[in-house]
Amino acid sequence: MIVVSTVNVNGIRAAAKKGLVEWLAGTKADVVCLQEVRAEEKQIPAEVRELDGWHAVWAPAAAKGRAGVAVLSRRQPERTAVGFGSAEFDGSGRYAEIDLPGLTVASLYLPSGEVGTERQDEKERFMAEFIVHLDALRRRAAEDGREVLVCGDWNIAHREDDLKNWRSNQKNAGFLPEERAWMTRLFDEVGYVDVVRALHPDQAGPYTWWSYRGRAFDNDAGWRIDYQIASPGLAAKAVEAHVERAADHAERWSDHAPVTIGFDLGQLL
Questions:
Q1: Cα torsion for 245, 246, 247, 248, to the nearest 10°?
Q2: CA distances from 136 to 139, 143, 181 (A)
Q3: Which one of 19, 116, 185, 229 is at 20 to 30 Å from 5 when CA atoms are compared?
Q4: Which one is catalytic: 153, 162, 194, 226?
Q5: Mean pLDDT, residues 122-147 taken together
Q6: Is 153 designated active site?
Q7: What radius of gyration, in Å, describes the C-alpha atoms of the chain?
Q8: How far apart are CA 245 and CA 93, in angstroms?
Q9: How far apart are CA 28 and CA 58, in angstroms?
């Protein structure tokens, strides 16, 4: 078995004070992907940066206090990379990947966007470049006999059952028809699999993000925007997936919850 978790920490320095350190100490995950770290490596609290038994790849954003992703693995990676070959986005702290034996794992923080603004234009440019990278990554992996897992905050709810209030969000970033169509292309044309949805095809959610405003968490008025998206061979080996939703609002250390999946890889690793 290999267990992989992904979570948007909503600022690693704040999360470390609220419970992230304790969660990392107790997790059974072999690989943890983090997003929205919002810190350079030297700014990361020592209790997170110097975790015993973990190897870390940190990818901060060139703009201080923005974005930032990381991949933590208990096994020493064979290869690490930051960015995906994009002149515009490789310094934005939105993508990092590692190679383990037979498996590439990546951490993604896709731009959130905002309708009618440059932020949405940026999101669309990122999506256009990124889907090309994902296609090439899967094809190279297949040729090499490897599997691929891209984890992270994709900032898109793909289906109506991926957010509680879908009717009122059809004109908002994160649930726009063109964004959802892009996700459909990722699955139907490029050939990836939404692992949680494959294991739980008829379940509403499970949601992974709840606004801090109002009583969204208490009412479970959330969005499923954090995904683990895998090559088909790896997805077929998934045996269990769950969202580690906090027991109550006071126990939350991020506005997102970890998505954790166990894969039965046999001799792959």
A1: -120
A2: 5, 11, 20
A3: 185
A4: 153
A5: 97
A6: yes
A7: 17
A8: 26
A9: 21
